[in-house]
Amino acid sequence: MCGIFGCVLQKGAVAPLIHSGLKRLEYRGYDSVGIATVFKGRIYLKKDRGKIDEVHARWNLNDLPGKMGIGHTRWATHGAPLQINAHPQVDCSGKVAVIHNGIIENFAELRDELINKNHGFVSKTDTEVIPHLIEENLKTGLDFKEAVREAVTKLEGSYAICVVYSGAPNKIISARKASPLVIGISDKGVCASSDIPTVLPLTNKIIEVNNGEIAVLSEKEVEIRRIESWERISRKPCEITWTLEMAQKQGYPHFMLKEIHEQPSRLQDGLRLQENYLNLLTTFLDRSKEIYLIACGTSYNACVAASYMFSNLCNLITHPVLASEFVEQYGNAVNIDSTILAVSQSGETADVLNAIEYARFRAATILGITNSIGSTLTRVARAYISQQSGPEIGVAATKTFTSQLMVFAQLALHLAKIRGKVSQNQMDYLTEKIQEIPALVEEIIQIQEKKIRKIAKKYKEKACFYFLGRGISTATAIEGRLKLLEIAYIPSIAYPAGESKHGPISLIEQGFPIIFVCPKDSTQKALIGNIMEMKARGGTIIAVVDESNDEIKKLADDYIEIPADIPELWTPIPYVIPLQLFAYYMAIEKGLNPDMPRNLAKSVTVL
Ligand code: M6R
After folding, report:
1. Do 393 and 507 fall within a single domain?
2. Which residues form the pocket of ligand 1, taking CB atoms under 6 Å from any ligand atom?
3. Does the residue 406 lie in any domain?
4. How does DSSP classify residue 227?
């Protein structure tokens, strides 16, 4: 997501320091950059779309005057990557500037309220409401600190912000709710950032800011308070010993592991999708005669799961199609009544873009789900929605799969509501249960990671694995297989379990490992039958299984438990987590670097 960095120096120019701090965030990916400083009662600001070096070449980011300022790398969520949408965002008077990482869920209501009070908005960002709220509070006579406090109490969603005000030349105010924020203390000054790498050149003395806290930075100290009670908190800095590389990975040995661990918070962001975009996509889907879900790799596997969601909740047939096969398989059948829902993390995958181009030529409607606002997919799609998983650096897609499923689940719920195919009770139940998914994923990672590592150690010499599941768990199985083969280079096979007896079962011999995906759902009885078939032929069973399912636990040689009572259609999100971790630890056991699998690129931009 976005990177924020604010700094108050005791002396010297702050802009070059912020500029070099932002360079340390480049590895995360971003589309725009901006810096604002305060000098002699005025805010100076430069921002633009593009890489830091390009924007610096265009505008010279170093010559902003003053010893206090804020800087931002933007990764678009609300509003395209344009200069106007880059941060800092300012109020009407140009006296308050804000940088933000997170998503303000209620920005549309707040913007309407502020427009009624004659505030003018220039960007499409959710962030812009914040400087205007602060401006409004300053007008009522509140001081800077209180004005920020009042503003953030109105915000729903997630945020880490840094605010500067031309009337307070030596203060940056930061606040945090559900987005990371750390303070760095040095004898040269005090800084606040979303990321430790930006702070490291200045200091290794760090203070964590907790959710619901505000930090007032001045050149020699920081004052931290609880936003609600206004109680002052005293917290001692701790010294960190991370290198730059360790800091970029937030202490994890690999980006892949960091991204697996990030899924609970990214899924929480995935529950903050903009209602108007969900509604728009739902309307297009509802009136479509023929729907193709087009994607590659992991995104395709998410489409397979989505096809079960749409048919079960909305009585809607959707065809998941590998993008590279689309033209040959369905090309002639595509026409004005066809809808293509293209799913691509990067929004730049050549096979996907090629399929879209073909379908556009035949007058089909193009819709998109992507992680990259501003990508080619978002430019050619009639409507699109962001999967909100934040920059993914590991070549193996992990949070992409779960975040895309979070979008699909909400689309299916919206469509089910319009179509009236699901009872109110069932809708309420599913809606409540989808909200629980981020916490469940957290629990699975916390409780099961060590055990999964041990299982990987035990099976590391196996030459081939089977992944089997029934119903929607077929998608979980094929995604688990893709992870294992792409990073641990273990040839693996995935099938719907029911199909295994039509051929693949011939591979089974004593000790052949089969990973079964076993939620307690409508397929359970049949799945137990498939497990018995494999056991009868000497297969070794590893089950990812509902914790309440003693029958399968008894049959399995090893099992990983998943909390009970998850609706069948939501199971791929929690059940894929152990498979991601298994693939990761298999790669580690084999001495491979999971972040850089051979022959693979993060974004495949050739046909
Ligand atoms: O950016 P996209 O979602 O379009 O990428 C699709 C595939 O290239 C991608 O999922 C690839 O298969 C990953 N290496 C899977 O981990």
Report:
1. yes
2. 296-299, 344-346, 349, 352, 395-397, 482, 486, 600, 603-604
3. yes
4. T
